[in-house]
């Protein structure tokens, strides 16, 4: 979601402001009033609209971006290198569109920055009211001659704003997520029809891990807006069905779903992975097949790695075909049984089909979304797909609402270290975890893209998923705030849970469906 704190494109962070005694509230009132005045006001009688065109550089890539604002609604369309995508919000309902044209609609999973925005906006509009979580730290000389304002409302994210002491405009905004830091700096302010905003915005992610530079080329304020420039586009499908249903040439090996994918005259084994937000292919395969990479961006998941975009002209999976598919080129190699695996089939594929995984029989079926009828006896569970990974609500012990990712690529169910920090009383092992640690006291780890993640076993319960209750469940608890942990989620339900069900991944209808299989009956009864 775009920030409403300032009239420029942007958001985010450095490190948390040190604990200081808050300055007198009267001083904060003066800073906020001056800030509001410096931003300016729209020319009377003109609509609240802006159209901004930017030039962008990111690493070795360059491109353009167009931002269209109408009141509180907006849409952004950007092209960087070979990738064109979009995002926006209509009536408070956010969405994003990826390079393959597929839409992800926001459910409010990541609302902490919005909480901050609302708190700061309320303080700016009425500075004499006691602002919740907004305080003036003081007047600083470094890194700017500025007033340092801390925005940290309940359930928000600690953010620091540096408001210039001379101009009263924003020099820098910082946001601090656990293990994740970004910094936005603003300069070259200009005034158009009474509104002042930055024509240069620089984004520094995780102390230089990635940097994005934006320079405004053209700004139009207060003019009429064609509604089509704000509207959410239609989602596109990259999958073509030869018939309404297709049994895929898949193998389920140790509960990993391995699918051979034809690319031109070559076949590559890829893992079906609902925990992947895109289609990814090992860089060595990309080079061997002669696909052109665009850009080199540093990312972090289980470790740090370089990612590029590439386009695969043709991908065929049994009776399914895909053309001109944008994929991520990155380091990924693994073995399932004796089968080499060199890629992941994630959101971009799964969003176009209803996928039925029969773990007990070892079969995988793709169904056209228009032809799918839920099977009798299957339980539908709503999912959120804000990050391209299905998330559901479960409960564990006394924690009644947990947001868990459903990940066919995870061997074990995980709890994130962020959950442990927020709910230490819930981490009372029921015996098996302690027993496993006593037998093997060394910290375990598992493989992720770019590296490994440490864990320890922990036996907790009861686990409640929809209508099912399990008195105990063995989780792996991650041991560091790794980038592997996607923010605002508590953990992962992996293959150790999913294997007891017929699983239907139904992204097009916003749900998964589960039907207990013979494995479930054998272990848990009816």
Describe the structure.
- With about 525 residues, the chain is mainly beta.
- Strand 38 (about 500-505) and strand 39 (about 510-515) form a beta hairpin.
- About 40% of the residues are buried.
In the predicted model, the low-confidence regions spanning at least 5 consecutive residues are: 1-21
The largest beta-sheet arranges its strands as 6-5-4-3-2-1-13-12-11-10-9-8-7
Could you report the average pLDDT, rounded to the nearest whole number? 89
Count of spatially separate domains: 3
Major sheet size, sense and barrel closure:
13 strands, antiparallel
Radius of gyration: 25 Å
Q: What is shown here, in short?
A:
The chain has 526 residues and is mainly beta.
Features:
disordered N terminus, 9-stranded mixed β-sheet, 526 residues, outer membrane lipoprotein receptor (LolB), chain A, globular, 12% helix, Cathepsin D, subunit A, domain 1, 13-stranded antiparallel β-sheet, 3 domains
Blueprint (SSEs and pairs):
Blueprint: H1 25-39, E1 49-58, E2 61-70, E3 73-80, E4 83-90, E5 93-97, E6 103-105, H2 112-125, E7 134-140, E8 146-151, E9 159-164, E10 170-177, E11 180-192, E12 195-205, E13 210-221, E14 239-241, E15 245-247, E16 251-253, E17 256-263, E18 266-272, E19 280-282, H3 283-288, E20 293-300, E21 304-317, E22 320-330, E23 334-336, E24 339-341, E25 343-345, H4 347-350, E26 354-358, E27 363-367, E28 379-382, E29 391-396, E30 399-406, E31 414-415, H5 417-422, H6 432-439, E32 444-448, E33 451-460, E34 463-465, E35 468-470, E36 473-478, E37 491-493, H7 495-498, E38 501-506, E39 511-516, H8 518-524
Parallel strand pairs: 18-25, 19-22, 30-37, 31-36
Antiparallel strand pairs: 1-2, 1-13, 2-3, 3-4, 4-5, 5-6, 7-8, 8-9, 9-10, 10-11, 11-12, 12-13, 14-22, 15-27, 16-17, 17-18, 19-25, 20-21, 21-22, 23-24, 26-27, 26-38, 28-39, 29-30, 29-34, 31-37, 32-33, 33-36, 34-35, 38-39
């Amino acid at each position: 979601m775009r920030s409403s704190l300032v009239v420029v494109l942007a958001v985010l962070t450095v490190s948390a402001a040190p604990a200081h005694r808050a300055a007198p509230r009267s001083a904060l009132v003066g800073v906020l009033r001056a800030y509001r005045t410096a931003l300016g006001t729209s020319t009377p009688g003109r609509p609240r609209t802006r159209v901004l065109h930017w030039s962008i550089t990111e690493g070795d890539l360059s491109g353009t971006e167009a931002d269209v604002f109408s009141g509180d609604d907006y849409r952004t369309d950007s092209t960087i290198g070979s990738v064109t995508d979009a995002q926006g919000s209509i009536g408070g309902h956010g969405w994003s569109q990826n390079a393959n044209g597929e839409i992800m609609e926001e459910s409010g999973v990541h609302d902490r920055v919005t909480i901050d925005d609302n708190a700061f906006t309320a303080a700016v509009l009425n500075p004499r009211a006691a602002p919740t979580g907004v305080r003036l730290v003081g007047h600083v000389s470094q890194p700017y001659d500025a007033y340092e304002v801390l925005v940290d409302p309940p359930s928000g994210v600690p953010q620091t704003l540096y408001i210039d002491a001379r101009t009263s405009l924003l020099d820098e905004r910082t946001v601090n997520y656990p293990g994740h830091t970004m910094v936005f700096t603003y300069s070259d302010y200009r005034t158009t029809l009474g509104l002042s905003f930055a024509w240069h915005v620089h984004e520094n992610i995780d102390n230089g891990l990635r940097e994005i530079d934006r320079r405004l080329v053209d700004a139009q304020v207060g003019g009429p807006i064609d509604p089509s420039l704000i509207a959410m586009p239609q989602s596109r499908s990259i999958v073509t069905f030869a018939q309404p249903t297709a049994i895929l040439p898949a193998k389920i090996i140790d509960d990993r779903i391995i699918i051979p994918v034809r690319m031109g005259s070559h076949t590559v084994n890829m893992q079906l992975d609902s925990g992947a937000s895109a289609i990814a292919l090992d860089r060595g395969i990309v080079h061997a097949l002669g696909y052109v990479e665009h850009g080199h961006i540093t990312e972090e998941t289980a470790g740090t790695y370089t990612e590029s975009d590439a386009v695969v002209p043709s991908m065929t999976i049994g009776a399914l075909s895909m053309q001109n598919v944008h994929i991520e080129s990155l380091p990924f190699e693994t073995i399932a049984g004796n089968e080499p695996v060199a890629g992941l089939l994630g959101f971009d594929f799964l969003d176009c089909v209803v996928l039925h995984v029969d773990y007990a029989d070892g079969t995988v079926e793709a169904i056209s979304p228009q032809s799918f009828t839920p099977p009798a006896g299957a339980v539908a569970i709503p999912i959120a797909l804000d990050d391209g990974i299905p998330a559901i609500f479960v409960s564990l012990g006394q924690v009644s609402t947990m947001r868990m990712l459903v990940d066919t690529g995870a061997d074990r169910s995980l709890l994130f270290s962020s959950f442990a920090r927020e709910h230490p009383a819930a981490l009372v092992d029921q015996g098996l975890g302690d027993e496993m640690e006593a037998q093997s006291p060394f910290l375990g780890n598992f493989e992720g893209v770019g590296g490994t993640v440490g864990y320890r076993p922990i036996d907790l319960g009861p686990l409640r998923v929809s209508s099912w209750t399990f008195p105990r469940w063995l989780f792996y608890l991650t041991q560091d705030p790794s980038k592997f942990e996607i923010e605002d989620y508590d953990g992962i339900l992996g293959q150790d849970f999913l294997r007891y069900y017929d699983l239907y991944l139904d992204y097009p209808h916003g749900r998964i469906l589960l039907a207990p299989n013979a494995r479930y009956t054998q272990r848990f009864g009816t």
